[in-house]
Amino acid sequence: MVDAELNEPQAVAAAHSRGPLLVFAGAGSGKTRVITYRVANLIANHGVAPWRILAVTFTNKAAGEMRARLETLCGADLARALWVGTFHATCAKLLRVHGAAIGVPPNFVIYDTADQKAVVTRALGDLNLDERRYPPRAVLAHIHKHKQEGRGPDEAAAHSYIDDIALRIFRAYDARLRAANAVDFEDLILLVARLLGTDAEGDKIRRRFDHVLVDEFQDTNATQYRLLSELAKTHRNLCVVGDDDQSIYSWRGADVRNIRGFRREYPDATIIKLEQNYRSSQRIVKAALGVIVRSADREPKELWTANPEGAPVQVTLARDERDEAGLVVETLRRARAEGTNLREIAVFYRVHAQSRVLEEALRAANIPYQIIGGTKFYERAEVKDALAYLRILMNPQSDVDLLRIINVPARGIGQTTVDRLVTWAGGMGEPLFEVLARVREVDDLGAAAKKKLASFRELLDDLRVAARTSTPSALLEHVLASTGYLRALEGEDTAESDARIENLRELVGSVQDYEAEAQAAGEEATLAGLLERVTLVSDVDGLEDAGRVVLMTVHGAKGLEFARVILTGMEEEMFPYKGVDPSERDELEEERRLAYVAITRARQHLTMTHTQMRQIFGKTRWNRPSRFLGELPQGVAEYAVTAAAASGAQQPSYVDRESSFEPAMRPWRHPQVPPPRFVDPDFFDDRASDVNDLSLRRGSRVAHERFGEGKVTRVIRIGEPAVVAVFPGWGEKKILARFLKPAE
DNA sequence: TCTTTGTAATTTTTT
DNA sequence: ATTACAAAGA
Description:
Layout: H1 8-15, E1 21-25, H2 31-46, E2 53-57, H3 60-74, H4 76-81, E3 83-86, H5 87-98, E4 109-110, H6 113-126, H7 136-148, H8 161-179, E5 182-183, H9 185-197, H10 199-206, E6 211-214, H11 222-231, E7 238-242, H12 257-260, H13 262-265, E8 270-274, E9 276-277, H14 282-292, E10 304-305, E11 313-318, H15 321-337, E12 345-349, H16 355-364, E13 369-371, H17 381-394, H18 399-405, H19 415-428, H20 432-437, H21 447-469, H22 472-482, H23 485-492, H24 495-520, H25 527-535, E14 549-553, H26 554-557, E15 562-567, H27 585-599, E16 602-611, E17 613-616, E18 619-622, H28 627-630, E19 637-641, H29 643-647, E20 689-691, E21 694-696, E22 701-704, E23 708-717, E24 721-727, E25 731-736, E26 740-742
Helix pairs in contact: 1-2, 2-3, 5-9, 6-7, 6-8, 9-10, 9-11, 14-27, 15-16, 17-18, 17-22, 21-22, 22-24, 23-24
The structure holds a DNA duplex.
């Protein structure tokens, strides 16, 4: 049925009917096509009921696209019956139905990062710990790491004093979540994975699905992996699709080993590699390969394309970030003049901090743009306030929400009153909402405070009555009016308050959208459904504005494609980005994959820019061009320099880089300037050579008098040949080659 | 309770 | 450079 539209490996993957399947899908190789065709095939030719198929993605956008394509392929009715969703949304759905078995009531709320931080802060308070000594952000990262690796507070073990404290915070945090009947993002996965481990309820969930398909499998963490293997335990119909080369979220717990080790876990898995790229020009594919082939430990694969050679990649040097922004504007103008729609163009950067200058230049040049990322709509204070009201109506136990709105808008309930209330409730072990009903019994509260608290509780009770009969949007409007929230904002009458009011209107609008969508899908629009949606939805999901250039970080670009891409800030320290501590090998590997992802987003045109100097975080830095530029193969790129950079008096310190950088023209090179003495040795990567019987290569075994035997991780120069080598027990050392001997 | 001032932090952030 | 957030002051 479908074969004519698929190439050979795609067709084999799509036709696979049962058992584990691993698909390595190179960038632009049509993986969504394979997944959707396979689903269609299962339904049409293998008699699988659509509601017994689960397809999991990481983003709502990916889920939406998949669903849309399945609708075209299978028809709207069948497609609607399929389970297509993100890990989190899918688990939330399952947890609402099955959570009771592990003590999670169906009206749980999902706490986002800000809420979680508030819970940590309160947990620290419970334990009398100093917030400065245990920054909530760091604590939260620690807790998430445990949860991402499958450990709840009971499984996490303490190995040291610090661990012990961390563990106590973890326990207090989780206790607070359970008391509030709230879950964090990690819990959604972890709790369902745990449910699957229970006999009765676990089997109930397992019996729902005959087939499980996973997109972007390289981004799964240990808990997600466990969830998947539990789900597929009986039928083993687990199909995972991903690309280890595009693994860029290890810092968020993703573990590439899941995809690299899949064939070990499932020795009978069918393995298919999609290596033909349908997206990019030959030159762009070659550029991407130049970067990724230097990656260590990758699954061997050969990305290729039958597309035309295409235009050369443009590599341009600018003087500084303002000059670079001017260059971007110029490139956009020219592209527009050539007839490219602005929405087909994207500007990427490594960190958000780079966006500001670009934004200013675009605004000055009157070029419409849209920035993805940064502060998200649902994270704005007024939106969170409004949603907190809704959440407390659904789940009155949610203390974080109650505390957020108890004095918003100001109703004379001060910090002292709140503190006393919290202390009292903490002692009673009761949700604050309950205590509000019996506020008279709280001894250390003044009469005035009691009165205000009682009337706040009355307000909430009235709203709860309204909640039973109103639609979500009507309820929201009612909340905004009857709490005086809107009135308070109107009273402020500033530009900022106007913007906030506008945001609230937008929120009401989006709730109405939700209701319309729910109706179209034949479902009831519920408060729970709405709240789940708003916490599980990010801004990238709403990206389809016409006629605007898109600005985003490279991370934000994953999964997208554009006719033309401008990749900015291609300098050492910017991209690869280097934090304070000496670059970890793994981190560099991830930067490399990130560069690969960035390059492979482009269909026809790719421009890469770098600067001689850049101001970032208030400091001026002179950086050498990114090593990734030096890795572009011969013939794919064309090199240029802006006028400002060419005329610059200062000589950047990177002129001595011909070893790996071969521009067709290098007008910025001023030979009279001597090369700097202190060249960063790390820059001279891979200077493989032989010195006195010693093989200086990455991976060679060498011996040192003091450190013993070690392995070379990098060949460098410190005025003379040298290496970076790892010695067991000593760690990484930089050693001159003449102090080394070949290992026995 | 609200304002001001000071301090620290600032990769990336699918949910 | 910017910003966010906390502590101290009015």
